[in-house]
Amino acid sequence: MNATEPRRRWWPRSVRARTALAAASTAALILVAIGWWLHHDVYRQGTRIAEKQAEQQLWALVDQLNEGVVPAHRDTVLPYEVVATGRRAAVAYGGGMDAFDPGTRHVLPAPAEAREPGSLTILPLRIPMRDSSSRDRFGMAGRTRTVMFADISADELGSDKVAALGVTTDAHLRVYVVVLPRTAEDMARTTDLLLLRAGLVGLVLIAAVTYFAVRIALRPVEAIRVLTASVTATDPRERVTVPATGHEITALATTINATLQRLDTAAAQQRRFVADAAHELRSPLTTLLASLEVALAYPERTDWPAAATTAARQTRRLQALAEDLLLLARLDTRTPVTGPETVDLTALASRLTEQYPLTERPLTLTCDSTAPAHAHGNPDEYERLLRNLIDNAARHAAHRIQITIRNQDDWVVLTVHDDGPGVPAEDAERIFERFVRLDDARSRDDGGTGLGLAIARDLADRHGGTLTLAPRTLGACFRLRLPRARTPAEK
């Protein structure tokens, strides 16, 4: 068991579950942020409502006092108290202030100095603790509360009103109303509960919708997985269904079909290559075995030198074919050449021209070059490439083979041109396939193994170049383009 596996058990493995969990977590963070903002906004709005309610009650009390009427305890819903200078007990109180027994001694402070009548003042005050405050239903005792107050001058009321209020003519009255946060707290608490319930239901719905939406979206992926699981290297003919929606799964299905097509093509080429190789190997083996069996059956009538010559020729053919197959196998697995070794293709072509044996037919092999042409790569592989091109030209040329080498900007261009029958335009690419021989080159003694041009192209690709058949009206012309290597003098 993997050492890190126990730590990952809490995280679901299913993409559907992971996506649903991620969506629910993101939604939860958003809902928490929205809930925090709503809580504070509702509390602020509730506080404003409570302050407005307290202000309305305050001015109602002031109006009653200005009329010389002592407010009754039952006329208000918020705690209030009316105090006056020169008086120990409160003038009036109610709304819960009776729990502090203000009839004996007022709770809130009397005005030290008179303020302008009609002005409203809001400030925090600490409600004192008293033995009689055990009946405090609003929990005000010992806490600081926001208080609104307004002042009244007794000398502006008249003697009758002053007497009705029970204060002296030179007294200053102050009307207190305590702002209770109960309204704001109740609104915020109600909002929090609603948000909590709605949030939990919303999270469950978001997770469920996300889970099933991803499940539906992944159905084509599951179909692709089931179908590709049945594909084997020997039979990659299955293809996945491409959705018509045009989304990412369509691109995935298209890519998988393209990959399966390449795999199918590669498997077909491999099967064809194995079949061709077996056929090519069987032919010289059959000839060799037949000649040896005849010689052994009739030893006294066998021309042993001729039999040995035939056996040697077929053995050399088998050897050449085996070497070509091994070289192709190495080329299929090797990386492109990036080494610093530099080869002068002009000198290489000139040397091959001088050393190439032309004893079977009267052929003229010439090399035309104006300057050294350098390219990075392996000298032995370059020699094999040029030799294969010359061998192919020598098998088809009538009288002449010409090699030309030119430096063209950043490329070295080498051509091998023969005056033979040429290659039909429709076979310009097919001749580079393995074990391909055209109709006029079917002789296995003269046509080679059918791998020379395929090896030459693979070597060109390995060195970052190209090998193509150039169009010609007479004969065949193979053009090799390789990246040019700059000499120190040119740099």
Automatic annotation (TrEMBL):
Residues 215-268 form the HAMP domain. Residues 276-486 form the Histidine kinase domain. CDD domains: HATPase, HisKA. Keywords: Kinase, Membrane, Phosphoprotein, Transferase, Transmembrane, Transmembrane helix, Two-component regulatory system. The keyword Transcription regulation does not apply. It comes from Streptomyces spinosisporus. This is histidine kinase. It holds the Pfam family HATPase_c. The chain crosses the membrane at residues 20-38, 194-214. It is found in: Cell membrane. It catalyses: ATP + protein L-histidine = ADP + protein N-phospho-L-histidine. GO terms for molecular function: kinase activity. It comes from the Bacteria. InterPro entries: HAMP_dom, HATPase_C_sf, HATPase_dom, His_kinase_dom, HisK_dim/P_dom, HisK_dim/P_sf, Sig_transdc_His_kin-like_C, TCS_sensor_his_kinase. PROSITE patterns: HAMP, HIS_KIN. The keyword Transmembrane applies. Its EC number is 2.7.13.3.
